[in-house]
Specification:
homotetramer; about 325 residues; alpha/beta; Alpha-Beta Plaits; TIM Barrel; 2 domains; 8-stranded parallel sheet; 14 strands
Chain lengths: ~325, ~325, ~325, ~325
């Protein structure tokens, strides 16, 4: 539904043209005449309404889209929580996905050490980047196929499911061979060709929120994946860009509550990228679970000070232990509700 | 400390002028010469350094302030948590301040009903505005002195401490007579005259974060109060302004962790203004406590649908009960750390 | 006018309560029933509508305010451009106000040198702060009354009108004695007590846009001044706070075009604070005039490298000459329209 | 160069480990010891420095990157303005590229009418989308190959060069056959695989600024293209995302001045997307040229009210005439400098 507000100076002819346009598109309308303004409520096919360009008509002051464009991801469409099943490991509907590991895969030794450390402390997913989207072309770009092989090996050895980022739709088959979950990073949240490609696959997808994406844009991005047939989508809040510079991003935990209201999809939180400071990961992980998140994505590196990427925000295995203890305590409280 | 980065094209004379200026101000410096650039580290009196205008010198590419200007509010200056004592009720260092009540005082009946409701459910402070700073001059501006009298009466009747906003330094004596805590609202966070005025008083102050204030600016605003002699300051995170429109503001819970790291002052969270949606108050209140907040400020109105201000974000007493139960559970977890 | 969108699950009783509330407030409504949602258009007294708290009613999904709350500042209320007359110097309606001078008044010598320099190059106003609102209590706070005396003397000597900032309503009489225009700074844009105080005076007011104020909030702030009887208001765009850090603020020149559409008040632009970099002042001054601004506020200091405040963004008199030549050329183009 | 600030509590061992790490990476350092803090300036290979993770070391308080990572796009690397030659039409160094046409290609008739209209009024490029990245999967996605064919035909008929967006690296060969300039849209600014792909081509590229990209990130994105060998890059400012909702985006004209300072690449401005309101296109186009832009990208549609995409911000040919007259006047002034 769309609301069209006519300006106080709109003429009858202006209004007539608006009405004609609406009928011509196969839509219907209701008029409300106020003292100063007439308001037109447009009803009919969502897709047609979303394409209307009414502000270009003379006499139109403002238009307001009332209903969201997304459908399949909405709570209205499917009231019960979606639980994504990743080879037997469930995420959503009370099941936590704890995804931990290094930012980038650097070597088999580093990866395996990380994987064993996080497994022992309660993680059920191993995260690690083989293809890294980096701001500068001169930064470390990842180990590519070699990295994927290490991830698969480490996953098999420890029993952890593997999450890794896809940045190029042509690598879909390759990555699908090695990974259990395909991660779409913040920078690619509106890379619609990539969204459609993973949508045509049946692999579970972890869709990170774009750096300055609204919740509505994020859910519309997820809709691209579902509309191609892949319903196995997990959302991941990772901080948004604001004026504040003390933290790398501003972790928007209210997005957890908002997504729970608007959508049935599970949502996890990444306090490592969300804050960019390892000291803040623990309190923010706690807060994320308290807000209702279905899991966490946390960077853990056996030796953060020699990490090739994002060492500033990586936890040592010892600090990750403290986070996991908090999470367990928190889950007891949440369960008592 | 300040770092001055000379540009690659800076001449010896450019550098000389910079050095002379530093010495002339009674400061000292260290030079680091790189291949392309020379770097000057300036050491000495914080106040003098903060006044230096070095970018106006030729050959200076960039300057970086290393140390924050605030001092009295810093954790370095006072490592242990400050506990503010409001007539026997403590806030900080593990003591929660739960401030609840209507956005605006409307009538004695409404206020007393609210006060009794929140007291019965565990609040220890009554909040309510007698002077309301409103975006439009045509919005309800508060009951003024009459509102203050009602607040005091309701506070005495229920045993709740009273928190109310001060918007005019000339009203300081008046408000101090009736209130236990003076609230500085977001719009006045950098109204320095008002900060200095409450700094000269000894009344506890609740300092809300400005709509788009950095954490550093916020702590500097608190420094204005402490530097006048009033150390009884509680900070309040109430959401910052971002591009997201689903929520009224973006509640920045990482600010809780940041303030705990940088300062000894207690910090509470206002999820009502922070989200602008009553449905989100409960999960965000839970998350705030999990993040380490020393309390909450929550709008509760016996009949939100007839509130004169901010009814959209006010809880009914029944919903406030649920929040308080969550808070108690959460505190058990936090205590177990 | 307000639009209330009922949720698809709203009952007849929910709708009935909404209708009753509207009628009880003396307002009227129109209903539009769609397939899924009913929409209620509320008509009647602006002030009452702006106080409605409809989202707190069960069954209400969303509310949209259609009309702005401000009235006296609107172009609808007064279609022709306002021209503010400051002792014979006009600003608005094609008359440019060029306000130049140092950020802070430091000494009679510095001020007079600045004043003569900017007068000789075409400025018609002298700007300079006697009371400086500074982020830190330890920064230079201005010369106060002594600074005001210098401003008045320099203004009289050069024939420039004097613009200076007011930060404390108790200083209104004092400052009014010395200054021709009262400046309200960005940090005080929503210090409503101060706005009301200058509104009760008849002195022209320069109202800077708040750091993160929307255009609507800014015009509402101006409405506070006009609604007290003072119609001599000039707006000043000075950059807004965004995520970008290369510039001190992001100068929003589209605000010039927006204000021209929405309001009859004159608007000038401050490229010095707007960019924080003296190298960018000249192109941005040019762009401001091209966008339709009624003037400029520019920091000029005879010796920026020894300025006590904001030297980084101050122009030398020589660079100010270049700006003024650009402005004159630009005005020819604009006149040719 | 990187600056490492040690915390006041850092031990000699902490410092030793930092020094060892720097040397181990083949880098060098200078120490500055202040009263409270030691500062370490790191010198050596840019790429290695940019990979350092020093905040993860104990005792490190803060790190500051002094030098930007990009190189080929920088003004330091190439002081004179780059002029991009598109089949004989030059952009940069005083040559304006005026790119006009409909948001999306809808039909041959609409396109040709647009092309002839903008050609007659002084445009030298025809813009139009054949592949449209849209927020919702249900919005019009473009005519694909058919649209490309129309663009080429319309370009040949009118003598306009063709600019069109590429959203999928696999379509590079296809689009290159039909278009003269490959446009990378805001949503793909950090789609690094796409950047590398167009970098391996020799087609001129128009790189739009990301919705919330800093100037530094934008120049680094351009560096991806240049580092693959394609130096024919034109930047395009199209508004950034801020809290302001009156305009669709906030057009950041100071980015024009900033890019001119930091880089040799030409930069044009898109006031249509930048404001989202056709009424604001004309003043903002004027301001863009005044700020120093090397051209404009403007949406022009013969009948904006029936446009399938972005009609709200499209100009009629008549209004585009007014813009072009302003541009011509403006260029005379700018030439006189």
């Amino acid at each position: 539904m769309m609301i069209i507000i006519m300006s106080p100076t709109a003429t009858k002819e202006n209004l007539k043209k608006v009405q004609d346009k609406i009928l011509k598109e196969g839509l219907r309308y209701h008029l409300s005449k106020g003292e100063l303004r007439t308001i037109v409520g447009v009803i009919g096919d969502k897709k047609i309404i979303s394409g209307l360009q009414m502000k270009a008509f003379e006499g139109v002051e403002k238009t307001v889209q009332i209903t969201e464009k997304y459908k399949l991801v909405s709570r209205e469409f499917k009231p019960e929580d979606t639980i994504v099943n990743i080879g037997g490991v469930l995420v959503g509907g009370g099941n936590l996905g704890i995804m931990a590991g290094p930012c980038a895969v650097e070597s088999m030794e580093q990866l395996l050490e990380s994987a064993e450390a996080v497994k022992a402390r309660g993680a059920n997913f191993l995260r690690g980047g083989a293809f890294k989207p980096r701001t500068s072309p001169y930064d470390f770009q990842g180990l590519a196929r070699e990295g994927l092989e290490m991830l698969k090996a480490a996953g098999e050895k420890t029993g952890l499911k593997v999450v890794t980022e896809i940045v190029d739709m042509n690598a879909l088959d390759l990555i699908s061979e090695y990974a259990d979950v395909l991660q779409i990073g913040a920078r690619n949240m509106q890379n619609f060709e990539l969204l459609k490609a993973v949508g045509r696959s049946q692999k579970p997808v972890l869709l990170k929120r774009g750096m300055s994406a609204t919740i509505s844009e994020w859910l519309n991005a997820a809709e691209y994946i579902l509309s191609e047939g892949n319903y196995n989508v997990i959302l991941c809040e990772r901080g948004i860009r604001t004026y504040e510079t003390f933290t790398r991003n501003t972790l928007d935990l209210s997005a957890v509550a908002a997504v729970k209201e608007l959508s049935h999809l599970p949502i996890i939180v990444d306090p490592s990228h969300g804050t960019g400071r390892w000291q803040m990961v623990r309190p923010m992980a706690r807060a994320a679970i308290a807000a209702g998140a279905d899991g966490l994505m946390i960077e853990v590196h056996p030796h953060p000070e020699i990490a090739l990427s994002d060492g500033d925000q990586s936890l040592t295995p010892e600090n990750f232990s403290l986070v996991m203890k908090d999470v367990q305590n928190m889950m007891q409280v949440m369960g008592r509700e």
